[in-house]
């Protein structure tokens, strides 16, 4: 029962107030998404990317894939950042969840600060299928 919900990581909430993350398209930080097995223990207390229980399989690279951000905007009283849809092409993996993390927090390189944890609706891509993660221009729950 490693994945129990979708979370904005608590450490990320603090780092936002410290101005350590820049989601601006083209000039902002680099964000990645990594996929994990059901054995991973990721939740709101996750602070960094980890390779522990990260998936492995055909056409999946450890560390995940790089997300492309649009500049943050608002809708009513909600602020959000919309990443482009991300595609892992022709993968053969079993994944239960995902972690979005920042590899350039506060302008530095080589960081792995956690941003959000997601549960995936489908868990198996056994025959070199396409796994597409959709961005729906909505906010993550503030759990």
In the residues, how many domains can be counted?
Answer: 1
Indicate the structural class: mainly beta
Cα-atom radius of gyration: 15 Å
Strand portion: 25-35%
pLDDT averaged residue by residue: 81
Summarize this entry quickly.
With 143 residues, this protein is mainly beta. The protein contains one helix and nine strands.
Short descriptors:
single chain, 143 residues, mainly beta, five-stranded antiparallel sheet, two-stranded antiparallel ribbon, 1 helix, 9 strands, 6% helix, globular, disordered C terminus
Map the helices and strands.
Elements: E1 7-8, H1 10-17, E2 31-36, E3 65-67, E4 73-75, E5 78-80, E6 86-94, E7 97-102, E8 113-119, E9 124-133
Antiparallel strand pairs: 1-8, 2-3, 2-7, 4-5, 6-9, 7-8
Give a verbal description of the structure.
6% of the residues lie in helices and 34% in strands. The protein has 143 residues and is mainly beta. The chain has one domain (7-133). The chain is globular and about 35 Å long.
């Amino acid at each position: 029962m490693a994945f129990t919900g979708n979370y904005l990581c608590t450490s990320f909430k603090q780092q936002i107030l410290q101005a350590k993350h820049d989601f601006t398209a083209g000039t902002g930080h680099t964000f990645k998404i990594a996929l994990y097995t059901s054995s991973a223990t990721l939740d709101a207390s996750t602070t960094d990317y980890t390779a522990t229980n990260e998936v492995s399989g055909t056409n999946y690279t450890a560390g995940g894939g790089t997300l492309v951000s649009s500049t943050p905007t608002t809708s009513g009283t909600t602020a959000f950042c919309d990443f482009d849809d991300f595609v892992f092409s022709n993968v053969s993996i079993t994944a239960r969840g995902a972690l979005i993390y920042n590899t350039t927090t506060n302008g530095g390189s080589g960081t792995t600060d956690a941003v959000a944890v997601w549960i995936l609706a489908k868990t198996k891509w056994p025959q070199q299928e396409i796994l597409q993660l959709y961005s729906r221009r909505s906010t993550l729950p503030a759990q």
